[in-house]
Amino acid sequence: MPQQKADYADEAEIDAELDELPDEETVEATVERLEERGFDVIVVDDADEALDAVQSQIPEGVSVMNGHSTTLEEIGFDEFLSEGDHEWESLPDQIWSVDDDAERRTARRESQTADYFLGGINAIARTGELVAADLSGSRIGAYPFAAGNVVIVSGTNKIVPTLDDALDRLESVAYPLENERAQEAYGVESAIAKQLIYRRETEEGRTTVVLVREQLGY
């Protein structure tokens, strides 16, 4: 059974003020700023609509990779990619079928150049910047350049007023929860080792942000 956020979330101390759902005016202002910075934006009401929106972005016959994302798990994308009725090349299934550790690491690096790379984000500034971090960089490495197309899914609870607040959210909301998840799943602590501030998408149509009016992920 996949790990559930409820399995570890209660153990994490977070800044709850940076994990609240914003009002509609804030969502609209954030969408406007994101679009000014070159991101395509789709706003949906719930997880089911988010999954439909993600599926609609990905054409048949392309390679698809997902970085670890609690949000993708919550909307059902990970399960759909692995088990669903689609015409995509699922790179995660190929990667985890490799027995040799070195070959698997190579396959994970190569997967950064997938036709479509999907993942979450840790914070969104109302001013239009996206902030994320990884221990390994296996998710955020694809976002700036490597992947052909990027689809980022986020609950609107990750919207905060400024870039400084976004960086604060990374430290005081996303990291404590990810640290608890890592200890629950792997028995080791996580770390904000590799960090990305995604200020602008310069290639038209390359990066789509799906905003969900629900409290998802971290």
From TrEMBL:
Tell me which Pfam families the record gives: LUD_dom (PF02589)
- Which residues are in coiled coils? none
Matches recorded under InterPro entries: FTHF_cligase-like_sf (IPR024185), LUD_dom (IPR003741), NagB/RpiA_transferase-like (IPR037171)
Per UniProt, residues of the LUD domain are: 28-184
The family database entries (SUPFAM superfamilies) matched by this protein are listed as: NagB/RpiA/CoA transferase-like
Protein's recorded name: Lactate utilization protein
Q: What is the lineage of its organism?
A: Archaea, Methanobacteriati, Methanobacteriota, Stenosarchaea group, Halobacteria
